[in-house]
Amino acid sequence: MKTILPEEVQAKLQAGEILNFIDVREVAEVEAGHIHGITNIPLGLLEFRMHELDKKTPYIMICRSGGRSGQATAFLESQGFDVTNMSGGMLEWTGEVK
Q1: Tell me, what CATH number does 7's domain have?
Q2: In whole angstroms, what is the distance from residue 35 CA to residue 19 CA?
Q3: How many C-beta atoms lie closer than 10 Å to residue 1's C-beta?
Q4: Quick check: pTM over 0.90?
Q5: What is the pLDDT of residues 22-34, one digit of tens each?
Q6: Which pLDDT tens digit goes with each residue over 49-95?
Q7: Residue 23 lies in a domain
């Protein structure tokens, strides 16, 4: 499974890269604070909503600490998606939060 550190994600954003984020936390968690531009698909709904995603698009998976996003990354990877888990999750994110 591919992983990326929150600092690496932040550096890519600051360099102007366009990144695609899937936040697998529950809606209330996301409303409390999230990275700008995320798509929220709670982990429990991922299997039913993965048709909304494009297998040609790379995604960075996010959750609170990296556990749920790790599960989501493993699942989507097994389905043929290009996914990377942001280790440490939002607990280690020091960038801007909406």
Answers
A1: 3.40.250.10
A2: 11
A3: 11
A4: yes
A5: 999 999 999 999 9
A6: 999 999 999 999 999 999 999 999 999 999 999 999 999 999 999 99
A7: yes
Total domains in the fold of the chain: 1
- 96 is a domain residue: no
pLDDT at 83: 98
Query: Which among 74, 57, 64, 54 has a CA at the least distance from the CA of 3?
Result: 74
How far is the C-alpha of 91 from the C-alpha of 73, rounded, in Å?
Answer: 18
Look up the domain containing 72 and give its range: 2-91
Angle (CA) 8 52 93, round 5°: 25
DSSP symbols for 48-95: HHGGGS-TTSEEEEE-SSSHHHHHHHHHHHHTT-EEEEETTGGGS--S
